[in-house]
Amino acid sequence: MPASGEPAAIGVTGTAGRGPGQAFVDLHCHSSASFDSLSRPADLVRVAAARGLTHLAITDHERLDGALEGRQHAPAGLTVIIGEEIRSADGDVLGLYLQEAVPPGMSAAETVEAIHAQGGLAGLPHPFDHHRNSGLKGDREVALAALAQQLDFIEAYNARAAFGDANERAAQFALRNGLPGVASSDAHSLLEVGVACTIVPGPIETPDQLRAALAQATLMPGHASYLVRGLTPLAKLINRTRGNRRLGPAAPRR
What is the Cα–Cα distance from 22 to 3, expressed in whole angstroms? Predict the structure, then answer.
């Protein structure tokens, strides 16, 4: 799980540095279908392609409609992976290559099983970030150890895990348990898309191909400014004022 130095600027994923057969993937971002983002799906995919990403997983909270809309607008050369960030009873879980939204409220183990039942990949986002109330609950090391054999990847670098040693602990856990680590933007604004990403050998067209490629991943860490991250509470306030999520109903909460 080698990692390079931090990119000098957003746009490090530009095509000028791309080698043959490489895929540049950002496996965690949010569209305006999420309660905490204002980024329209069409804008997300436009920006991702402009920054040189080849694959973008749109992982809205408890819903797929933003990802499905993004796929409709994706320009040539960009693959949109239909994903979801699911709040399980034990903390957040990422599902990739989904056909249907996985409902929140199940245990983390049950959530992973539901993702795999659809032929998808399951991973944990920001598992050691104590600043998120949706992080893995209880003793994280114990809970993660119980889940490790079920997972396909760990988010070893989250561009929004700005404080403490959350990313370092996630990377160390991935190494100790033989799990592939990825770097993701967790973008909630257009400015953050692709600021962190993962480079893997391509082509990537199926879940199995991505799972295999992650074993040879190179992580490209980076982070947006504190000012950019401050847009998230503003998005929450605006969406709360509107009274709904703009792309339709979310999956039912348990």
Answer: 15
